[in-house]
Design a protein that fits this description.
The complex is a heterodimer of chains A (about 110) and B (about 110). Chain A is mainly beta. Chain A is about 0% helix and about 60% strand. In chain A, a hairpin with a 6-residue loop joins strand 9 and strand 10. The radius of gyration of chain B is 13 Å and the shape is globular. Chain B is mainly beta and about 110 residues long. Chain B starts with a strand and ends with a strand. In chain B, the strands form two sheets. In chain B, strands 2, 4, 5, 9, 10 and 11 form a six-stranded mixed beta sheet that branches. Chain B has a five-stranded antiparallel beta sheet with strand order 1-3-8-7-6, with no helix packed on it. Classes of the chains: A mainly beta (about 110), B mainly beta (about 110). Chains A and B meet through strand 4, strand 5, strand 9 and strand 10 of A and strand 4, strand 5 and strand 9 of B.
Chain lengths: ~110, ~110
């Protein structure tokens, strides 16, 4: 069966420090992968999506970047965190052939 | 105007009440998702609909493709149903999910 792992669940980082959030998928191949962010009191916003290794599309300009070094691994990074980067980050995957979508448990990031 | 609109934004009800949350969208879709997000942030997929109606326990989801509208109903609501309920649609034109802003539901005992 397919599963998605996202870690860590919570993270407190100082302003200016780097960030690396990792998401891995099991039980499927060549998934579409997504990173979303939910700022406090707001809806989910698509940050990045990827249809294959090394293929990253960005939806909004920001202080973040994403990479897909392996087929089932999606990483969200920042070189220097800003206070405004605080929020809830969610990884998801879908099979491009069907319409189901699967979600990680999310990471609550607090930048202090 | 957002492509996915949910109403109401906030809903407080007494235990046992019948709850309805609405979702309207303006794009052509291949599927619509209802999701539940608890205070800790974790998201659970409740339903995926492309037509008709689905039922799981006390939860019922309906969709009217012609009217571009979906509803999520909760029967015999309970305080543990308190959460944010999110509607998301998958656009026909690409594989991306378009999210509603969510409905914050509080069920009082």
């Amino acid at each position: 069966s397919q599963t998605i792992h996202q870690w860590p669940a919570t993270l407190v980082q100082p302003v200016g420090s780097p960030l690396s959030l990792e998401c891995t998928v099991e039980g499927t191949s060549n998934p579409n992968l997504y990173w979303y962010r939910q700022a406090a009191g707001r809806g989910l916003q698509l940050l990045f999506y990827s249809v294959g290794i090394g293929q990253i599309s960005s939806e909004v300009p920001q202080n973040l970047s994403a990479s897909r070094p392996q087929d089932r691994q999606f990483i969200l990074s920042s070189k220097k965190l800003l206070l405004s980067d605080s929020g809830f980050y969610l990884c998801a995957w879908s099979d491009g052939q069907v319409t189901e979508a699967f979600f990680g448990q999310g990471t609550r990031l607090t930048v202090v | 105007k957002n492509e996915v609109e949910q109403s109401p934004q906030n809903l407080t009800a007494q235990e046992g009440e019948f709850i309805t949350i609405n979702c309207s969208y303006s794009v052509g879709i291949s599927a619509l998702h209802w999701l539940q997000q608890h205070p800790g942030g974790g998201i659970v997929s409740l339903f995926m609909l492309s037509s008709g109606k689905k039922k799981h326990g006390r939860l019922i989801a309906t969709i009217n493709i012609q009217e571009k509208h979906s509803s999520l109903h909760i029967t015999a609501s309970h305080p543990r149903d308190s959460a944010v309920y999110i509607c998301a649609v998958r656009s026909h034109s690409n594989y991306q999910l378009i999210w509603g802003a969510g409905t914050k539901l509080i069920i009082k005992p």
